Every structure is written in structure tokens, then in C-alpha cells.
Amino acid sequence: MRKVGEANLDDLSVGAAILGTGGGGNPYIGTLLAKQAIRECGPVELVSVDEVPDDAVVVPSAMMGAPTVMVEKLPRGDEIIRAFKALQEFMGKEITHTVSIEAGGLNSTTPFSVAAHMGIPLVDADGMGRAFPEIQMVTPTMYGVSATPMALADEKGNAAIIETIDNRWTERLARSLTIDMGCTAMIALYGMDGKMLKEAMVPGTIGLAEELGRLIRETRAAHGDPIGAVLGRLNGFRVFTGKIADVARRTETGFARGEAKIEGAGDDAGSTLELRFQNEHLVALRNGEIVVSVPDLIIVLDAETGEPITTEELRYGFRVTVIATPCDSRWRTAAGLELAGPRYFGYDIEYVPVEERFGTAAA
Amino acid sequence: MRIGIDVGGTNTDAVLMDGRSVLAEVKTPTTPDVTSGIVTVLRTLISDSGVEAGQVQGVMIGTTHFTNAVVEAKRLMPTACIRLGLPATQALPPMVDWPERLREVLGNHHFLCHGGHEFDGREISPLDPDELRRVAVEIGERGIRSVAISSVFSPVNTESEQRAAEIVGHELPDAAISLSHEIGRIGLLERENATIMNACLRDLAVHIVEAFNSALAEFGIEAPVYLSQNDGTLMSVEFAERYPVATFASGPTNSMRGAAFLSGILDCAVVDIGGTTSDVGMLQHGFPREASIAVEIGGVRTNFRMPDVFSFGLGGGSIVREDGELTIGPDSVGYELTERALVFGGSELTATDIAVAAGLAEIGDPDRVASLDRSLVERAVRMIETEIAESVDRMKTSAGDIPVVVVGGGSVLLGDELPGASQLVKPEHFAVANAIGAAIAQIGGEVDRVFSLEQLPREEALAQAKQEATDKAVAAGASRGSVNIVDVEEVPLAYLPSNATRIHVKAVGELELGRETVAQGR
Do the chains contact at A75 and B88, CB–CB below 8 Å? Predict the structure, then answer.
């Protein structure tokens, strides 16, 4: 167990943007909210999964909706607590811990407000080890954990509890409610006990995000190679370095989809890398051939500073380095690939783990 | 005929131009009282050129006054911020992420009220006129005369802010009111921050504009006066009085635009070498490339369109030392160059002395640096060259060599070549490029808001946005025939099924001025 204070959150938000693989929303607002909660209620207790008793009642808390709306319609402040309490009441038992469902992007910091205000520990883990666009895309789904009962609350005072037959139905119904609530809702879902948490969640990812942010900051201060430091920590591979030559975006079925074309520089001169994204990066094609795909992480970093760049921030002319890192091994099972593999996203290819493709050229 | 003036922190530069030719140029130290500095440059321009005041058709001024006021937290008005959006947004009240000192200077007066809209234009809650009247009375009782009003999704629907402004304006007829939708784009905190900064600068804006006007009146110049904005376009003084925040960062923009005009190169790197620091920026189609990340001004996060500029501590006054290792800057003799540099009889070895010793420039008395160690001079010249070349490389967007244009008083530090530069251009009048940039600025109009493409087909939405931007440019003074769309950007709002897309369009055109249209740098 350790206490996490305001000072830790800036590093955490940078690392969370790395694990966000281009999506997950900009963590700035989430970080401000978490800092404020800590200022009001004191530091948050961060516990490792091993410290959670088997009979603990763990409920993840998150923001659902459009991160781009979140930067405009800021929260009232108590939505997340109302959602959390509504679910607690519905479940009829005291919730003992909260946890992040998505370590990538702004949902890395959302549960800090809950932990601070409820006075309960935050578990150092998440349900993805990265960011994904849909509710059912979490490792607990593979263990048969139900997303429902799920609570949603908005700033007006509306709240809903939904129960569904499976987690894809949860996505569908919760998405409709969220849109009516003005495209942001605070949610509590995927309740599980401590035993299941240890099995089903990805451990250590909040600490990892903080560590990544710190690594970039400290390496830069020492005039070192921040990208190399990130690769070393994540066992990742340098995929491509170059300049963004074109970014095309469009909205389809409620998601930001698009492509970014990067013209190679240095060792990659003469080649092109194309990134395709649906909020998060899905595949990277080098000269037309897929070299990395979901569920592995495709991350765009500023070639100079190592700072992560989200898909919304991608702009013509940026000098970037694209890296790829291995996902949690459970995403590579048949069940994992069915949930979030290339075919689910419409790419009819066999998934090849990133280290098999780049393994010989170790980072 | 027109006059361009750049009022910087150290120097005030000015040019008198006729069409594309520079008739007179002048550089003087900036004075604490604005008027006398302007009077000095005007007197020099008029006497050097023999032009009569009546022939001047427009005066374009770039100024750092407003940026500096915020950075120094001086001369700012106590300001109240009213935010419309209850019950949303309470978690992060206005000025939540401001530096304590600046928040205290403004008085930390903020009020959360009902109103505001959802992403699709629905009301979050109905505006409450009684609530706003009570707030206005309270603001009046606190003796505050400057009010910023922000509203959730006001770039999508401006109604809440406009109605609130009417109600508050009715209660507080003397108050200056700034509305966020007129100032910023999506991103409530950043837009609101800019609106509050704008509001707190209103008195200073009136004062500065008066100072400009009275300086011009002293010379009988009755031509319209414009101020330059951060995106390289002009605004009228009436607009500047209401939107002083729009002048932020216009300095680097003006020098880059001036460089494009003087060199005739529209796609290049521009290095502006001053006395203490240098700025490198990139020109694309004659306009500065904008920064992509949130820009902080005086510690306040904003989402202004700002030129993407890399600044480093090298200038004509940079102090050169060899103490085991050769160093140049970052400390500088600054405006005391003409007293402290060796070539001016001083005792400090500066970058300018190196340039003179190397035969790159003829400034002051070259004999005073004739005995400098040749190896030191050569290594220092190479070091200056390397630092500038590396800074240019940082900003480049393509691997190949690119044209580099050098402007600013410190341009003498560079020779005829630079690694990574396909050509190195040091145009005529390089020392006053920023004043020239002010003189030739264009006038623009911008649209940046969210369209629902389910209700409006994409082509129509784009056409509508372009038309609005063009109309805005014309309303601001551009001649309709000259207006071009220079930027179109679409950002779909992630996770939204109604095809909500943010479209940003910028249109610019030539300013219609008297009988003559201002000549352009393109």
C-alpha cells in the first residue's frame, strides 16, 4: 500500500496517454478532478492486487462518452459518487475497493475521485492494460464477469441502473443512455470480488502509467533517450520514425475513424507507415502491409520529447516515432481475439504478436 | 502609403511603406509611456521620407503590451467571471488552474449560474434571469466593472451568453462584458481563461489605444489604425479595444510574415535573431505554422492559435566566454550593446564582436576586435552557426534542406551559408521585419464549431462554414474578391453517433484601405 498525492498525478497522466494507444481521451480534466478530490479528502490509498482480500467487494468506476464533450461540459462533481452509491444500494452490500477499468487515457484518473471521496482504497490494476473503445472489451469479460448491474449518473441528477443479458448489450444500452445524458456519464460497473479481481484484471497498470510518465520526465531532464526508456520498460519495439504527411478523419457509427500517413525519415526514409484508428490505433501498415495490429499497443510519440500524441492531436507535419508493445497475454487467446482482435474491427488478417514480427531487432 | 510599427519589450521599430517599397525605417528603445516612443518613430519616419501626414492611409501596430501585462500581472482590472452551465461544471470552477498570484490580482470573483447547452444544442438548464440579475447586483456592489461570461458549448449555441450579456448589461450599464464564444473555441476552461484575460485587459486596451491615437493625432495622421493579431491578420482598434487578448504572440508572427514579404519565400524557416534571444518558426504558404499543444501565457492554459516558435538564448548581445569551454549566452548585454560590446568601446565580448572580428559585419570600431584570437573567433562563429542550424532542424517538417530567411537586428551573426539550408536569405531591411510584418498584415475571419452531419450533409456543412468565415473576413474589412480560404480542419467528436464534427475554417483577404489596397507579402 502506498499513498498517492497530487504530485504523482502529472506523471500518471502522461503514462496513461501512452497506454491509451492514441485514444482514451486527454487526461487533463481527469487529472484536475483527481487533484481536487485529493486536496479535499487527502491522498488516495493505492493497494496492489495481492493486498486485496478474496472477499473484497470491488467496483470499477469510469467516465463513459465522448472525451471531447468532457472538455466542454465539465462534471458537477458528485456524479461519480452518485453512480457508485446507487450501485452499492442496488447490490445491497458495502463496496470496499474501487479500481480503474481502463488504464489508458482519462479513466486512469477517474477512480481517484471515488477513492478519495468514499475513503476506500484504489486497486493498482485495470481491465485492459491499455484503452479500448467499447464496454465489453475488458479482460473480466473473458472470465464471465458481468458488466451489470451497472449504474450511470449525469450532472442533472438522473441515474439509471441497467441489467443486461451480456456485456455487448451493456455497451449498446449504456451508449444510448449516455448520449441522452449529453454524451458524458459517470459509471460504476463490473462489480467483482477480490478473488476474481486477482484473476481477471491486469495488475499494476496504474503504477506502470505513473512510472512511464516519470521515466519520460527524468530521462528528458538527463538529456537521455525518452523513447528508448519507454521501450525498455514495456518490452516494446520501434516501428517507424518520420513525419506525418496526411491525416484523414471521419465519423462512422459513433466513432472517430481515420488514417494517418507518416513519411519515413532516417532509417525509415523512403518508406511510409499508415495508421488506422477507431478512437484507438487499430493497425499499422508499412508500405501497405500490416506490421502491427490490435490487441497489441500502437503508440505515437513525439520524436523529440517522447510525449504521447493522441489521435485527435495528430497533425500534418508532426515528427513522430511509432512504437508497438505487447498486450496482456489474455488478449492473445481465442476469447481475447474474438473480443478485440483485428477481425472484430474488420481486418481479415491473422493476428501476429508484435515480438514475433520485430523480435530479432530487439529494442 | 502606410506605417507599420512594432512595439516590443526592448525596441520600437517602424517602417513607412509605399506599395511594396520601404521608404523609411527606424528602430528606437521602447519608452515606458507608450505615446512618446510612437511619437519618436513617427517623427523620424516623416522627416526621413519627406512624406506628409495626410498621405498616410493606414497605421498598423503590433504590440506586446497585453501579453506582458498578463505575464507580469500588472495593470489588470479586477474581473468577475460568470459561467453558465449549472448543474454541470461545478467540480472545476473558473480560474481553477490559474497561478495563485494572477487569480488574486483579478480578485477571484466567479459565479456559477444556470444555462448552457449540450453538444447537440439542447439546453443543459434554462437560463434564470433573476439569478443573473442577483449576480449582476453583487458584482456591482463589489465595484467590479469588467465581466467575462462563459457558457458550456457556446461555440455550438451562443444564445445563453448573449442573453446573459443583455441581462448583466442592463443591470451594469458601465461594465465591459467579454463573451467566450467570441474569443475561443471548444474546450471550456481554455476558452474561459482567454475570456477572463480579455476582460481584465479592457482598461489597458482603452488606455493603449488612446495613446496610439493621440500620438498619431499629434502628427495630424487621420488614417485608420489597426492592431496585429497572433495569426498574422489585422484588427481595427475598435475591435482591439474589445478583444485585446487577440494581440497575444503577434510579435513572432509579424517578423515571420515580414520575412516572407521581404524575401518573397512563402515556405521556409524564419530565424529572428534579437539582442538576447532568437525565435525560429516555419512559414507555410506565407503564414506561420501554428502550435499544436495548449499554450500557456503567464501560467494560464489557453487554446489560442499561436505560431509554433522555438526560442533559444542567442542574440547579438549574447556574452561570449572561454573558461575552459567556449560558451555563448544565454546571458546578454541586451539593449546596452552599444555601451558594453567591445566594438563600441565596452569591455564585454559579445556575439556581435565575434561577427565583426570575423568580417561578417561592420559595426562600431572593428579595430577594437582586431587582436582577438583567430581560433576563438572561428570556433565561436561555428558554434553560433551550429546552434541556429540545430534549432532550424528541430522545426523542420521535411528531411531535405529548406530555405532559411534570417531577420532581426542580430542577423549579422550569420554568414552566407547554414547547414541544412538550401539557401540562406538575409533580405534588405531585415532589422525591421516585424514592423514590415505589421504593415502588410491581412484581415481574416474564422469559424470553429460543431456541426451535426446527420442533419446537414458534409458538403453543405463545409460550404456553410466557408461562407461564414468569408463573411466574417469581409465584415472585418477584407475586400470580398480577395478573400481566400486558407485552412479547413475537421475533427469528428469521438463516440458520438450523430456524426458531430468540429469544422474550423479560416478565411483571409486583403484589407481595403482608402483608395489603395494594402500591398501584400505574397
Answer: yes
